[in-house]
Please model this.
Amino acid sequence: MNNEDYFHLLNKIFKKVSENDRGFLAKIRNADSPNLRYLVYDILASHHVRLQERYSLPIITLGASIVRRGTKQNGILTLGEALRLSFPDNKKEDPALQARLRRLLACNNSIEFCHILRSNLKLIESRLDPNKNLDYFKLFDLIGKFNTALQYAREELATDFYQTPNSKK
Model:
């Protein structure tokens, strides 16, 4: 299993959103509920995604977000940037925003991160400018780092949140 299989599936989801394939999209959207995850086992297995939660939850979480938002192509925003832009006046000091960031940074593995990420993605989807989209491929990589390089993942998320686009090097 490699990231190319996951990225291929993410691209397929973008394509199905463009084609408005309602059956496929409903399966992906409904699989975001833990009781309905089995609905996408056939899709996951056909793309060589292992069905254990550690492997399937990231793609289900991101796929559901893509479908809910109606995203037809990958964006450029990191999770930190998108979260920051989802709050009024882009104020990093907002207590509610800081609490959301701290909760994401406190996660110890990808499963926990995906569970916390889900509510943050819904907030981002509802508040973010429709012309701005997440970089779902980069977010998928970040989720994986919560299993393999935890401290690096935390630092990457915090850096993306606190640095403005002009201050990035």
